[in-house]
């Protein structure tokens, strides 16, 4: 019986015998408070009612001997809270917001009957929660739907403090890697099991809110040392509501690129095409059975005609031919006031993407990619009495990717060519090509909460079980299953100086499988009226089996968590916070894929160029079952320890400020160790390496004003530093070939060569590997975000203005040169690395910033219906600063040793140094000012 199946049986058993469990990611929150009289005396026996404004749900509790009440597992939304007691006037609080993973405190007084007229008070929308120390950035549709933002949940994630830009929507959070985040859709883990990156897109019109947790994250969440991102989708209500939108862009409206290739001087001005790209989006929701059963649906289709981008060396134009179809359907059923059930299906197919996995030197290095998948979820929430709540969920998410060549390169049927001179690929794609990559993740969760009074204090005891099964199916290969290592590649005519050829074995399709079983326990309690504690721990067991069923991963971890809030003035508005937590990443399934019986793009026949032809040398095994020794059954996932200390303060009814110091340290990460056997094959072993490390220090600040009184504003600033020697998503190079010598094309590096090797330097490969020590590639010391809206009524029109902006330090880049690993006999092995002259991150581009604006005007037409227009301008000031570079080659070769250099070599050295850090493609600059227009109809 598999561990996944055993975990499923355990889940079912817990559902039957226990009501003491609660879990992460559910779309429920809580309301608690205390009822007093005019003198401040507590009032037991008050009947308190919570009524959902949106769906008519009514639930009633009675205050205890201390006048306290609590509503657990309330579906998120807006509520009216009322209190009634004989001899007293009723009390009422309107517009009480219930948010996911949050408890909202609502205290009120009851006046004696006849003393005064009863008053209804609009409740606060608290940003500060005394019971929660987690850094959470909450962005709801009221804040973002009328603001200038990209139409993706990833764009909203980037608004959080500590988040820096990532690749294709995969951010780095507080020093963590882009594969260290967890992506939840309505509580379902949609993280790509193979890569650890985001696994699905989502219909933007279906998003209700996005919650991003970045620091001091509770034991309820695991498998990530980065951000935990919970995207919550819309549900139907008792009112029929919907929308129709036409969102249009046209490259002719946008500003021209005013930048140039800094090496050739060639203008990046593009041919703008006058073509309207229209996205059609529709939503509809409402009651099937009022107060009990509701539906919601969203559909989005888009076939953009993209403006051209250019390759970095050949300056050829290319553009994606994407087709997108996003749909999201949901049904909610409130069976009784205490028990609810809902189900959802969504999918996100996209085809025709021009994907770039390395620098697009020519069109042949591009891939034509399709991606997508679907997510399904069935969730139950229920309360039993006043002290128990239970939630359960089944979810399945599937990520699918297809990869094909954009076009086949002219040389050797599109084989990839790697130029050792500048470290770039040509003629074929570096990532490889394949089809039908399938990555499903199944998830069963049962969880709940128990509220208790222990030693006179309130305790919220929680536990949860999460059982998952993941699979990774793949089939990748280089074009023609071949890679050439060459020198002096000429992109104009395809000529080069031959060096080596690697003919790869074709393994065909393969698949691996893994199981994850998790258990967490945690307790929230307070001591007196000032101290609030959360103590918890999380146990996880992960197994992995390769493509022939062999167990190759078996890891068990325990992660303790502790947080403390001190209420300075005992009013819940000013908190001093502190936390400690240990976090472990998920061992991504591509690690298990490395143990495939014959891994993709791994084993090859090595050929050397003898001056006239390629001569076979040997068959080299670099990965797969035969090369891995020993098995990795004893290794642990990457580990991080975090300490935080901060201050939070509530401003008014719906705003708050936060300042927090964060210290994080990654240690003993999962590392590979490469070495050669006597036959020249590459042997790989895995271990947790104490010499690998990464540190993150930051001061994070944020101002958050929830939407109300016609305006909302989110602004944050982070000052940080990320440094160390471990910056890759899976296994760095630190332990590669420790017993070998490496050759670099610079005699000033290491020991200078002689004779025919006079223009080379030689040094132990350990020094090449260690030269990475420095700043992370994603280190941006200064990072700021801004998003706000302000609405007003002008005559018959409702007008909303929006603003967005960002500022960040420039990206880092490094002086490097190619280093080749040599065999014991001094022959090249086909293994190449980069030697960094001054460590990684030694240079930095200038800081960049941009500002966005929007304006929406709507008019009421009939019974709650409205029509309108929204205009958005991105990069209003048309800044086009440099944001990246791929010209990072450096050499001292013919400066210190120019007497032994030819004129051509001296020229090459001077050219390489002069071109260092230059921008050579449009993508190396900020996009110019652009425009988007939306015609809309809402009801």
Describe, in short, the structure shown.
The chain is built from seven helices and 58 strands. The chain is mainly β and 939 residues long. A hairpin with a 5-residue loop joins β2 and β3.
Q: What is the CATH architecture assignment of the domain at 3-122?
A: Sandwich
Low-pLDDT windows of residues: 3-23
Q: Give the strand tally.
A: 58
Backbone shape? globular
Q: State the helix count.
A: 7
Whole-number mean pLDDT: 89
Distance between the termini: 53 Å
CATH topological fold name of the domain at 3-122: Immunoglobulin-like
Overall radius of gyration: 30 Å
Largest sheet: 25 strands, antiparallel
| CATH level 1 name of the domain at 3-122 | Mainly Beta
CATH superfamily of the domain at 3-122: Carboxypeptidase-like, regulatory domain
Helical residue percent band: under 10%
Assign the structural class, choosing from mainly alpha, mainly beta, alpha/beta, alpha+beta, or little secondary structure: mainly beta
Percent strand: over 45%
């Amino acid at each position: 019986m598999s561990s996944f199946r055993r975990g499923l049986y355990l889940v079912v058993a817990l559902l039957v015998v226990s009501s003491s469990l609660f879990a992460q990611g559910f779309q429920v929150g809580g309301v608690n408070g205390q009822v007093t009289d005019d003198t401040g005396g507590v009032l037991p026996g008050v009947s308190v009612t919570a009524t959902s404004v949106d769906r008519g749900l009514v639930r009633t509790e009675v205050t205890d001997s201390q006048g306290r009440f609590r509503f657990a597992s309330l579906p998120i939304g807006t509520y009216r809270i009322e209190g009634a007691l004989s001899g007293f006037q009723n009390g009422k609080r309107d517009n009480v917001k219930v948010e996911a993973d949050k408890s909202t405190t609502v205290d009120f007084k009851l006046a004696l009957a006849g003393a005064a007229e009863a008053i209804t008070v609009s409740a606060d929308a608290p940003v500060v929660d005394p019971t929660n120390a987690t850094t959470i950035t909450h962005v709801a549709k009221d804040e973002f739907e009328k603001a200038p933002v990209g139409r993706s949940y990833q764009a909203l994630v980037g608004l959080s403090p500590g988040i820096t830009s990532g690749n294709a929507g995969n951010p780095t959070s507080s020093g963590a890697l882009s594969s260290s985040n967890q992506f939840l859709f309505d509580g379902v883990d949609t993280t790509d099991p193979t890569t650890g990156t985001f696994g699905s897109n989502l219909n933007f019109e279906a998003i209700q809110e996005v919650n991003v947790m970045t620091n001091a994250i509770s034991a309820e969440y695991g498998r990530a040392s980065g951000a935990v991102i919970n995207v919550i989708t819309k549900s139907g209500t008792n009112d029929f509501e919907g929308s129709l939108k036409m969102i249009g862009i046209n490259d002719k409206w946008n500003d021209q690129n005013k930048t140039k290739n800094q090496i050739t001087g060639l203008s990046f001005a593009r041919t703008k095409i006058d073509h309207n790209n229209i996205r059609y989006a529709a939503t509809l929701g409402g009651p099937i059975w009022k107060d009990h059963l509701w539906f919601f649906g969203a559909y989005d289709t888009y076939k953009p005609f993209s403006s051209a981008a250019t390759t970095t060396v050949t300056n050829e134009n290319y553009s994606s031919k994407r087709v997108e179809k996003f749909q999201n359907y949901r049904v909610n059923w409130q069976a009784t006031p205490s028990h609810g059930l809902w189900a959802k299906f969504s999918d996100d197919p996209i085809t025709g993407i021009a994907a770039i996995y390395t620098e697009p030197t020519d069109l042949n290095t591009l891939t034509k990619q399709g991606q997508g998948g679907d997510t399904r979820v069935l969730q139950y929430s229920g309360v039993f009495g006043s002290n128990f709540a239970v939630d359960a969920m089944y979810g399945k998410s599937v990520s699918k990717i297809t990869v094909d060549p954009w076009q086949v390169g002219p040389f050797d049927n599109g084989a990839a060519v790697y130029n050792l001179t500048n470290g770039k690929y040509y003629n074929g794609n570096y990532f490889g090509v394949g089809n039908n990559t399938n990555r499903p993740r199944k998830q069963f969760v049962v969880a709940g909460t128990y509220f208790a009074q222990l030693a006179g204090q309130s305790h919220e005891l929680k536990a949860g079980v999460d059982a998952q099964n993941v699979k990774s199916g793949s089939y990748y290969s280089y074009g023609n299953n071949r890679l050439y290592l060459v020198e002096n590649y000429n992109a104009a005519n395809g000529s080069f100086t031959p060096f080596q050829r690697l003919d790869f074995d074709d393994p065909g399709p393969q698949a691996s499988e893994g199981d994850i079983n998790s258990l967490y326990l945690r307790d929230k309690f307070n001591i007196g009226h000032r101290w609030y504690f959360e103590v918890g721990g999380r146990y996880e067991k992960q197994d992995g089996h390769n493509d022939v069923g062999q167990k190759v991963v078996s890891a068990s971890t325990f992660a303790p968590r502790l947080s403390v809030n001190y209420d300075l003035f005992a009013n819940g508005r000013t908190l001093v916070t502190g936390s400690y937590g240990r976090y472990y990443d998920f061992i991504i399934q591509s690690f298990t894929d490395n143990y495939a019986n014959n891994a993709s793009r791994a084993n090859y026949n090595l050929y050397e160029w003898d001056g006239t032809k390629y001569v076979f040398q040997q068959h080299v095994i670099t990965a797969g079952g035969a090369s891995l020794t020993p098995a990795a059954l004893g290794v642990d996932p990457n580990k991080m320890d975090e300490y935080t200390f901060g201050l939070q303060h509530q401003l008014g009814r719906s705003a708050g400020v936060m300042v927090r110091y964060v210290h994080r340290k990654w240690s003993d990460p999962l590392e590979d160790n490469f070495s050669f056997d006597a036959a020249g094959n590459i042997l790989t072993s895995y271990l947790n390496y104490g010499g690998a490390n990464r540190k993150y220090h930051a001061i994070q600040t944020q101002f958050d004003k929830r939407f109300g009184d016609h305006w909302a504003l989110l602004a944050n600033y982070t000052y940080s530093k990320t440094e160390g020697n471990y910056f890759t998503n899976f296994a760095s190079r630190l332990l590669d070939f420790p017993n070998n010598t490496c050759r670099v094309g610079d005699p000033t590096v290491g020991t200078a060569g002689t004779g025919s090797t006079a223009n080379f330097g030689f040094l132990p490969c350990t020094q090449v590997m260690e030269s990475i020590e420095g700043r992370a590639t994603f280190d941006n010391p200064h990072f700021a975000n801004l998003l706000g809206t302000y609405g007003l009524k002008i005559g018959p029109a409702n007008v909303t203005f929006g603003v967005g902006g960002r500022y960040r330090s420039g990206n880092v880049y490094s002086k490097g040169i190619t280093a080749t690993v040599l065999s014991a006999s001094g022959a090249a092995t086909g293994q190449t690395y980069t030697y960094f002259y001054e460590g990684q991150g030694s240079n930095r581009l200038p800081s960049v910033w941009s500002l966005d604006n929007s304006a929406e005007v709507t008019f009421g037409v009939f019974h709650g219906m409205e029509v309108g227009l929204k205009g958005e301008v991105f990069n209003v000031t048309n800044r086009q600063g440099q944001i990246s570079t791929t010209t990072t080659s450096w050499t001292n070769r013919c400066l210190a040793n120019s007497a032994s250099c030819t004129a051509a070599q001296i020229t090459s050295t001077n050219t390489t140094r002069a071109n260092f850090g230059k921008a050579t493609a449009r993508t190396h600059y900020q996009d110019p000012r652009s425009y988007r227009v939306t015609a809309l109809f809402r009801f």
